[in-house]
Amino acid sequence: MTFRIAPSILSADFAKLGEEVANVIASGADWIHFDVMDNHYVPNLTIGPLVCEAIRPYTTAPIDVHLMVKPVDRIVPDFAKAGANVITFHPEASEHVDRTLGLIRDSGCQAGLVFNPATPLNWMDHVMDKLDVVLVMSVNPGFGGQSFIPGALDKLREARAKIDAYAERSGRKILLEIDGGVKVGNIAEIARAGADTFVAGSAVFGAGKDSDPQRYNSVIGDLRGALAGV
Questions:
Q1: Which residues are 115's β-sheet partners?
Q2: CATH code for position 192
Q3: CA separation (Å) from 109 to 63, 65, 83, 208, 227?
Q4: Residues forming the active site
Q5: For 143-173, what is each residue's pLDDT tens digit?
Q6: Contact 113/135 with Cβ under 8 angstroms?
Q7: Could you give the number of structural domains in the chain?
Q8: pLDDT of amino acid 214
Q9: What is the largest CA-CA distance in the chain?
Q10: Fewest 10 Å CB contacts: which of 42, 126, 131, 155?
Q11: Does residue 4 contact residue 198 with C-beta atoms inside 8 Å?
């Protein structure tokens, strides 16, 4: 299994965001995770397409846009135009989940569903053909720096079983992403439960001294070291 590390810029220094993105990718990260919150679907307000467009020149790595907004469809084309590669959303935030997935893919991006801790996975059962990513939240969305909810491990195992069964039938791979409280001490256990893509915010961007451009090397290396034993 190929593992991907996707630092969330929610925990980055927004005063020098382009530099932060470039440094974290140079230190070995695979994706940039981009958290979009609207102070409506979740109780926080963060960033939009203009910021995505601004950081796009700083990296060729995939930008993984997680939409915590309601409604969803209006903003999808804007993020695709701004340079997003992956766009995921919460099924509760869309009136027509199949249509929204199709809109994302028609806009040239990979599409995915996001499942909160209390959201059942059965939303994915009838749209597997349109899914490129399934994102399991191991915290309640809205704020960075929260602790991992252990029940997410069982949910990952359930999602992995669905994804593997679909892959056996169709030959098509769907990525399984985890977001919330991921750190060096638990990433191996999370991987054993089935995740292959790991969002880490404060665990990565909270590392080292701000004056050191290589400060992320150590923590990303430690994350990879923990995954190597899986």
A1: 136
A2: 3.20.20.70
A3: 10, 10, 9, 34, 28
A4: 35, 179
A5: 887 899 999 999 999 999 999 999 999 999 9
A6: yes
A7: 1
A8: 74
A9: 51
A10: 126
A11: yes
